[in-house]
Task: inverse folding
């Protein structure tokens, strides 16, 4: 039996091809939702749009400090894993849900597969970097999306036999949903913008939005981009950012702010944007795959492939650097190729998990 653990928006989206493959093959599996994300537009909306089965378990842990949240998730997961006794647990990415899931499972001697293993920003001030490093080192199978990620794992002494180059499941998710998005999404008409005549922005990184100065710079940069480059900036806002904007009593001028949108609308916004500005990991990958230039509102990235192919540029949170990077990126033609695989990562991962011997034979 396979236990799929997820808890946040990007995990639901990037695990969806893995879940679909389990369904297609009629495998014995369950979905364990930690409830790290719980607002309709961060959670349920994706199950509905992507037509995913209901999670078999939901821990409803909600929001808390890092230690508290991680601890609550571990305690809840441990009980379920003891009852269900899966052979393999799959986690995806770098959230507290991933760290807690991998820790709880590995201590029960349950095999852990880490989807999207080997990403490194080499910045240990990011909570996600801690989660990635720990998870990779306690996982039994590491599904690396790119050769760079595979190499990082080898450099850290992880045994080659544990690592498998699969591509990133986000390519599968895009391919499975792009046509549906084109026919169903009316988001451009609803907002009143034309293709290639707007910029798309997202920002939610703890180190950016929890800092008054950095968030102020980012918002000022969006305002300036609107004034100087004459296209509107569309900003579907993560709840963390909404909370901090209210807390800091900030207002946004010249920016179209809206609640987070569903994946189908977001794919339309991304693929039709003139430029994407983001501090999201997934959005850097998606804009690269969709052939839309990206400016990353961070000093580093664990997605160096996007920069290498010419699709992305690091601007940090300095207002002038964001502006100059935006000018440079809108002048680039999207001739790069997608470094994240052919859209069969979900199938590869499930074929590998399914072919493994029963747990007791392995440990
Ligand atoms: C988490 C992940 C981050 C990932 C992001 C995806 C960690 C450490 N961080 O960050 O790596 O990029 O998810 O979006 O795991 N909130 C709501 N409704 C929700 C969820 C959150 O209102 O459904 C608000 C709460 O005020 C909460 C805040 O957002 O305190 C932050 O949520 P949390 O899950 O702690 O971290 P994210 O910033 O979402
Ligand atoms: N996304 C979405 N609606 C939005 C913003 C983002 O569906 O309003 C999707 C986006 O397509 C990507 C994922 O959410 O697949 C990225 O999640 P997020 O930026 O929250 O997390 P990260 O990738 O940084 O961990």
Result:
């Amino acid at each position: 039996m396979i236990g799929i653990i997820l808890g946040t928006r990007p995990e639901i989206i990037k695990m969806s091809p893995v879940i679909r493959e389990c369904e297609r093959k009629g495998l014995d599996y369950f979905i364990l939702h930690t409830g790290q994300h719980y607002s309709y537009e961060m959670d349920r909306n994706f199950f509905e749009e992507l037509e995913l089965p209901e999670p078999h378990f939901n821990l409803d842990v909600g929001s808390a400090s890092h230690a508290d949240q991680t601890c609550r998730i571990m305690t809840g997961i441990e009980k379920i894993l003891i009852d269900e006794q899966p052979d393999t647990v799959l986690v995806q990415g770098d959230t507290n849900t991933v760290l807690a899931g991998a820790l709880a499972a590995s201590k029960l001697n349950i095999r852990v597969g880490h989807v999207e293993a080997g990403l490194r920003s080499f910045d240990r001030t990011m909570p996600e970097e801690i989660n990635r490093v720990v998870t990779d080192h306690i996982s039994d199978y590491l599904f690396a999306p790119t050769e760079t990620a595979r190499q990082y794992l080898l450099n850290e002494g992880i045994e080659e036999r544990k690592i498998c180059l699969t591509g990133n499941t986000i390519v599968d998710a895009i391919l499975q949903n792009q046509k549906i998005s084109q026919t169903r999404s009316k988001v451009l008409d609803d907002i009143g913008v034309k293709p290639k005549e707007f910029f798309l922005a997202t920002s939610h990184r703890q180190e950016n939005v929890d800092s008054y100065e950095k968030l102020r710079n980012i918002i000022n940069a969006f305002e300036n981009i609107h004034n100087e480059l004459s296209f509107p900036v569309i900003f579907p806002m993560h709840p963390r950012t909404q909370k901090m904007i209210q807390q800091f009593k900030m207002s946004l001028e010249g920016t179209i702010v809206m609640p987070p949108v569903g994946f189908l609308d977001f794919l339309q916004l991304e693929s039709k944007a003139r430029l994407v500005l983001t501090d999201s990991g997934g959005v850097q990958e998606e804009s690269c795959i969709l052939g839309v230039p990206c400016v990353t509102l961070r000093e580093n990235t664990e997605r160096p492939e996007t920069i290498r192919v010419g699709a992305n540029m690091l601007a940090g949170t300095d207002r002038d650097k964001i502006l100059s990077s935006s000018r440079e990126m809108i002048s680039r033609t999207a001739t790069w190729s997608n470094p994240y695989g052919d859209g069969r990562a979900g199938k590869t991962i499930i074929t590998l998990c399914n072919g493994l011997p029963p747990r007791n034979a392995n440990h």
